[in-house]
Amino acid sequence: MQQNEQLIQQEKYLRLLSEKYPTPEAVSERLIHLEARLTLPKEVEHFLSDLHGEYGTFSHILNNCSGVIREKVAYVFGDRMDEEEQAEFCTLLYYPVEKLESLENEGRTVPKWYVETLGKLLELAKVMSYKYPLAKISELIPTAFTSVIVEMMNTRPDEDPAQFAYHKRLLDSIVEVGSAPSFICVFAELIKRLAVGWIHIVGDFFDRGSRPDAILDKVIDYPSLDIQWGNHDILWMGAACGSDACIANVVRNNLRYNNTEVLENGYGIGLRSLTLWAARQYPDEAPIKAAERAISIIMFKLEGKIIRRHPEFSMDERVLLDAVDYEKGTVRIDGKDYAMNQRVFPTIDPENPLKLSQEEEDIVKELRASFLASEPLRRHVEFLYRRGSVYTCCNGNLLFHACVPMNEDGSFTKVTVGGGDYSGRAYFDFVDAAARRAWTERDKILLDYMWYFWCGRESVFSGREFKTFERMFVDDESTWEEPDDPYFQFINDADACGRVLKEFGLDPEKGHIINGHVPVKKGESPVKSGGKAIVIDGGFCHAYHKKTGISGFTLISNSRGLRLLAHQHVADVRTALRENRDIESVSETVELQSYSLTVADTDKGKAIREEMEDLRALLIAYRSGVIHHA
Ligand SMILES: O=P(O)(O)OC[C@H]1O[C@](O)(COP(=O)(O)O)[C@@H](O)[C@@H]1O
Ligand SMILES: [Mn+2]
């Protein structure tokens, strides 16, 4: 009976498939393409993390594809162009519009230069397209001039004099009709798309740096990208869902880093009411500082209320507004009194420290209305939901921002949340579903979870106990230390890494864990347990450069293995253009295979094989007459 049911289902499915491939010839054609595709080299994957609003660095690394472009230029033109010429050519690829403008000012953009440059771009694009089937290359070609570019990509000037003449005519015509600058831009784009097959962003677009909005605008239309949410993303997502506590945290972070432009101009969220009111509360402070103090108190009040509503968060001792002696100016932490660096709390009623005043209520209400009304924020958050998730398993690797909560003995922590107990992968799945429901349902409890996901000790995005209150009000730095999850130790233990990979259904021998979140300090290696875990929060974040010493780590996975890049100093765009300067990067091989991986070895390969099985079944059904074909 059950078997019968299965057969009926399969036939239904094959009938649907036959709509797409209505003849045996169509099926065979597809099978041939798929079979051949399996033999092509694996696409390049590019991993980045903890961008923290650093648009300049991010877009440079995206433009130079973590050094892949420079390598290809050296490979193709190494014997024909000196270093200076190669560097200039790379700059043209990274910043075509700007570079063309400066070359034009120097009077160098003569027809001969255009023809030569187009010839080189075409040559490079051809070499770099060897990894892709024709259909895929057509998809990658930007929409402008598509038919001409397809034609150019298929000329064979070295093989035949007629082809040579044809090729030359194409290039000359482009220059003659004045389209060369546009073609250069399109080729630069195509070459970048050919260089990197897929991008993974392992969390934290937001906070600290000034232009997370510009980063999101840049990647929003990227066809080949996935995102693993970081705690800062969850915070902004929670704010966009309407969580007051998340909103207060976002506003505070922005004021703290003097980034109010992102909110005010990028997202159209005004801070005027808050700033004016705060200036009255703290007349001796500079306006930004006053606003930061005022929103911080609002934030601690809102957080205190959430903690009281959710005993399961086990954060009771974090309600520090309740532990302050407002007369003495001390706060009791872990049974010990500490002097506070602020004595004046004009917005707190010591009898009821968590109560928001009417003015505070009004400010929160106004901010919430602006967050909910912001169209650009809605667009960006919708994109984060659409392309993001808590974790991704891709080609045997496990990607997530922070941690799988663990006990001291290395077992997965059982976390009580949403009326159930969850650990390991089931906990990740719960969190993923809860975060999505917060956006669609906006239920109050789910909004509280979003706040917990941002900063909770057992949150998969955080894994540490935030000491925001102490960092703000207590000078004794011994109170600032943020205890973190044993996971962050266990990634140094290959067995524990293996258990994590296995928990997510991956091969512990072959897979890697790829995380962000914890800045890699100077002198520390991002490669843990011999490469089983790699932490690529290398510090795009300017504010953390003292700690990290460099401008970021990125990871590249190609057909030969894994390679880590430590980016030293990123030249700003102007210097890059003037001096043809690139990022100085140091490359470290994490893993090198003796053989080359092909598409057959990837997740895509698995999907292709499954599709081929279905197609073969359809072919049999056509031949046996079970399904009639056109
Ligand atoms: O995910 P990240 O980037 O580590 O951010 C969270 C950390 O930021 C903090 O809120 C401190 O922020 P600042 O460095 O901006 O003061 C810590 O309390 C917390 O551990
Ligand atoms: Mn983080």
TrEMBL record:
Q: Which InterPro entries match?
A: FBPtase_class3, Metallo-depent_PP-like
Q: Give, as in the UniProt entry, the pathway in which the protein acts.
A: Carbohydrate biosynthesis; gluconeogenesis
Q: Which cofactor does it need?
A: Mn(2+)
Alphabetized GO MF terms: fructose 1,6-bisphosphate 1-phosphatase activity
Alphabetically sorted, this entry's keywords are: Carbohydrate metabolism, Hydrolase, Manganese
Reactions mediated catalytically: beta-D-fructose 1,6-bisphosphate + H2O = beta-D-fructose 6-phosphate + phosphate
UniProt key word Manganese:
yes
| GO BP terms | gluconeogenesis
The record's section on SUPFAM superfamilies has: Metallo-dependent phosphatases
State its Enzyme Commission number(s).
3.1.3.11
- Broadest EC class assigned to this enzyme: hydrolase
Spell out the family assignment given in the record's similarity comment.
Answer: Belongs to the FBPase class 3 family.
Q: What is this protein called?
A: Fructose-1,6-bisphosphatase class 3
Q: Which organism is it from?
A: Schwartzia succinivorans DSM 10502
What gene is it encoded by?
fbp
